[in-house]
Amino acid sequence: MPFYLYQLSYTPEAVKALVASPSDREAAARKLIEGLGGKLHHLFFAFGKHDVVCLIECPDDQMMAAGAMAVAASGTVSSSSTVKLMTSAEAMAAMQTAGKAIGSYKPPMG
Residue-wise pLDDT tens for the chain (110 aa)? Predict the structure, then answer.
């Protein structure tokens, strides 16, 4: 199954609610992801631009998008991003394919 890096930032109202009544967001995320046939490998709270960073394994892009949409639809997220990840072996295979394709690419002439 493909891996994804999912990052989100909470709305100020969501942060206020979490401070007033802490809740296990990892358990909630795990339930959603497993319901979509995936696996939550890690969920971290973070400093900086994003409040939460997750490493998720999901059956396909459609299921990952469905999960991200479900979270966004909750109204507690001000922004999020999803990055599809590749293993080192997948990247090496892409490098080999790129090496074979290089001769067929014609750059624009300036």
Answer: 999 999 999 999 999 999 999 999 999 999 999 999 999 999 999 999 999 999 999 999 999 999 999 999 999 999 999 999 999 999 999 999 999 888 787 888 75
Q: Which residues fall within 8 angstroms of residue 22, CB to CB, at 6 or more apart?
A: none
Long-range pairs for 14-19: beta carbons < 8 A, 24 or more residues apart = 14/76, 14/77, 15/51, 17/76
Tokens, residue 86: 């590749």
The residues facing 85 across adjacent strands are 3
The token pair at 82 is 């999803």
CA 97 remoteness from chain centre: 26
**Whole-number Å distance between alpha carbons of 41 and 98:** 30
3-class DSSP state of 37: coil
CATH of domain 3-104: 3.30.70.920
Beta bridge partners of 45: 52
Sign of CA dihedral 8, 9, 13, 19: positive
